[in-house]
Amino acid sequence: MAYEVPPTPTNVQTTNPYVALDRGLFLSQKTNPAKYARIHAARWVTVGPEAAVGVLEYQVMVYNTKPTTAAQYAAGTLLVAPGGGNWFDTFTRGLVTDPILAEYWAIDSFTSNYLAADATRLKDDDKADKIVQAQLFVSTMASWAGLKEINLTTVFNAVAGQPLSRTSMNLSIDYEKNGTSGHLDVIDLPSGRFDPVHVALDKLRNV
Question: Is a pLDDT exceeding 90 seen at residue 7?
Answer without folding.
Answer: no
